[in-house]
Write a structure and sequence with these properties.
Elements: E1 2-6, H1 8-11, E2 19-21, E3 24-25, H2 26-33, H3 39-44, E4 55-59, E5 62-63, E6 73-74, E7 79-84
Parallel strand pairs: 1-7
Antiparallel strand pairs: 1-2, 3-6, 4-5, 4-7
Length: 89
């Protein structure tokens, strides 16, 4: 299983408790963690299914490489963090 966690700044906007889902590609993991008709999916992914510019995802300590196809491998036992990218001063 893979633990998918959403940071507090995302939880302010949409309901997204941590979840345990089956391992696979990042696309598969996110599909299992986010309902296709829910507001969380629209907040994290654009209409083409790619990560939105304001969202960053880490698999363990590493930022995902494939932001469009979401083909990064997510091994069993990994932790995935989905977070809103923050900027400003």
């Amino acid at each position: 299983m893979v633990r998918v966690s959403f940071t507090a700044n995302l939880q302010r906007h949409v309901a997204c408790p941590p979840q345990d889902v089956q391992a696979g590609t990042l696309r598969q993991v996110l599909d299992r963690a986010m309902p296709s008709d829910g507001p969380l999916r629209g907040y994290v992914l654009d209409d083409q299914g790619a990560l939105r510019k304001h969202v960053t995802v880490f698999v363990g300590p590493d930022a995902v490489v494939d932001r469009r196809g979401l083909t990064d491998a997510v091994p069993d036992g990994a932790e995935v963090w989905v977070m809103q990218a923050l900027s400003g001063g």
